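ARCHIVE CARD
Drawer: 12
Card no.: 0347
Subject: one protein chain, sequence and derived structure
Cross-reference: see card 0346
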Amino acid sequence: MSPNTTEAPAAASVSAAASPIPLAAPVMHATRPLKSKTPSLSTYQVWPTANRLAPPPRRCESWAMVVEMEWLVDQPSQSNPVMVVALEGLFDAADSATTAVRLMKESANSVETLARIDPEGFFNFQDRRPEVRLDDNGRRVIDWPSTQVDAVERFGAKHPLVIVDGVEPHLRWRTFADYLVEVATESQAGLVVTLGAMVGLAPHTRPLGVVGSSTNAELARMFGLGRPTYEGPTGLVGALHDALDQARIPVISLRVSVPHYVPGPPNPEATRSLLKRFELITGIITDHSELDEAAVAWRERVDTAVAGDDDLKNYVAQLERQIDEADDLLPTGDDLATQFEAFLRDPWK
């Protein structure tokens, strides 16, 4: 074998071992074009990846790692508040209940956010899609369905409010209800009031009736409320009432009937009726009179629409007769206020 055939591989081996491992060339990304009549790859300025903005950190590896109940204060500072719950969804016809709590917050002298419930584990976002919008700086912002807990102080109110304003979740109702029980417990609420609205056989020409009920026999007796008799499918509010009952936290349900032939929002008459009944029971001023003009205008618009349909006009007249024949007398505001104060002095009995 000739020397050339034996030494060449060895030389090649030594050369390969001695040569350094080549470094990868920096990744370059085309970004903005230079001024050119015929742009091509060479007419783009390129910048190394080191100059790019870093991506935002991931929230977590799994939704189960999300802090679902985020408290923003160490300890709520209110004393013996009334907790009010209103959630968008099936039991918020014409947005009547959520509008009521938002009006209470708007007219308050102070509002402090206590906690938020993260929506990730509670919603099917294909059914309740988040909405994208542009902020004041033109940047895109996504608004996710959320539930917020606010401490509300109102002028002249004997009791502060803790308002839960959000959206009825699709999933994990028992867990969601447990979080709201936690809110009631941590804030030391003396009473929980859920506000709702359902379409029903109510004529728009009469004050819209509000049905009040409680499983607490003492509450029902003191405030002239009914005891729940409904049997059948329920919603998050039903699960919440059950969880509050098991935790021995007093709870009242107030539901206004919205005319089924005018189901769309807004309905200032329904919102005003809810606020008036809430004020009657708790003695907490709600400024419901600010809705008087809007309620009159709403009724006039519906009057005009009904007048053009003889069948609907006759149907409304029938509903009016049924309402006028009903005997639904409420206790006076002074009587209820006295009993409410007596109850809150010892709400856990």
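Annotation on reverse: Residues 5-63 have pLDDT under 50 and may be disordered. The first helix runs from residue 3 to 18.
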